[in-house]
């Protein structure tokens, strides 16, 4: 198993990461359609957090 991960190229990693992120975004979109109120609340929480966040 260690040899298989050692042989993985950066292009393979990027491809896997792109596939994962595409699936994650699709899952989020479906969840937002199914539960719009929860999605809106999460957006509002995120916006408040970003507004009050200080570097």
Write the layout of secondary structure elements.
Elements: H1 2-6, H2 10-34, H3 36-52
Uncertain regions: pLDDT < 50 for 5+ in a row?
Answer: none
Mean pLDDT figure: 88
Task: Write down how many β-strands occur, each being a DSSP E stretch of 2 or more residues.
Answer: 0
For the record, the count of structural domains works out to 1
**Structural class, from secondary structure content?**
mainly alpha
CA-based shape: flat
> Which series of helices and strands comes N to C?
HHH
Question: Quick one: biggest sheet?
Answer: none
Characterise this structure:
The chain is mostly helical and 55 residues long. It has one domain (1-52). It contains three helices and no strands. Helix 2 crosses helix 3. The longest helix is centred in the middle third of the chain and has 25 residues, at 10-34. The N and C termini lie far apart (42 Å). 0% of the residues are buried. The mean pLDDT is 88.
Outline of the structure:
The protein is an all-alpha fold and 55 residues long. Helix content is 85%, strand content 0%. The longest helix has 25 residues, at 10-34.
Entry keywords:
about 55 residues; mainly alpha; about 85% helix
């Amino acid at each position: 198993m260690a040899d298989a991960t050692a042989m993985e190229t950066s292009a393979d990693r990027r491809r896997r990461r792109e596939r994962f992120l595409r699936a994650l975004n699709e899952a989020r979109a479906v969840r937002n359609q199914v539960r719009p109120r929860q999605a809106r609340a999460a957006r509002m929480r995120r916006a408040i957090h970003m507004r009050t966040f200080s570097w």
